[in-house]
């Protein structure tokens, strides 16, 4: 079987969402296997100046260690990271995180575009990026960058998204090269993220 997210090829997964994203992630992230061999980085738009409870919310439901990404922290396989509120989250070419207080993008900080674009530069064709439900076009330019670098691009089916604006923008930006799936199929793809059997 040719897995959508082949861990032989994919070295990192980045996921972005906005309105409706928490509910979507509660369907997706519990599917991640305990032996997931790659880092998974999640960015959800949150109000600026608020403490994020996302690691606490998801930790009981996910088999992986769950934490907020820290400045200069190296990405570790088998770890689920959440972007902290109030900062852009970047992945440097040496595959460490950095935080930025640059102006918001699409009225958002953290912005999905910033994470996706820097992750594409760091991981090239070994990156997978998934864009979920949301009410603006953040993430579309980032998906286009992942596509240009030869990465794997996935979009939640707009027909089932709580707000389809974000996935529709992602589809337009990638020129139809994105893999469009409902949440149930995306969860199956995450469940298949396991080390290769030798």
UniProtKB/TrEMBL annotation:
- Please provide the record's keywords in A-Z order: Chemotaxis, Hydrolase
Tell me the ranges covered by the CheB-type methylesterase domain, including all copies.
7-180
So which domain of life are we looking at? Bacteria
Q: Which InterPro entries match?
A: CheB_C, Sig_transdc_resp-reg_Me-estase
Question: EC number(s) for this protein?
Answer: 3.1.1.61
Q: Where is the active site?
A: 18, 45, 138
Q: Which reaction does it catalyse?
A: [protein]-L-glutamate 5-O-methyl ester + H2O = L-glutamyl-[protein] + methanol + H(+)
Q: Mind telling me which PROSITE patterns this protein's record contains?
A: CHEB (PS50122)
PANTHER family, per database record: PROTEIN-GLUTAMATE METHYLESTERASE/PROTEIN-GLUTAMINE GLUTAMINASE, PROTEIN-GLUTAMATE METHYLESTERASE_PROTEIN-GLUTAMINE GLUTAMINASE
Q: What is this protein called?
A: protein-glutamate methylesterase
Q: Which organism is it from?
A: Chitiniphilus shinanonensis
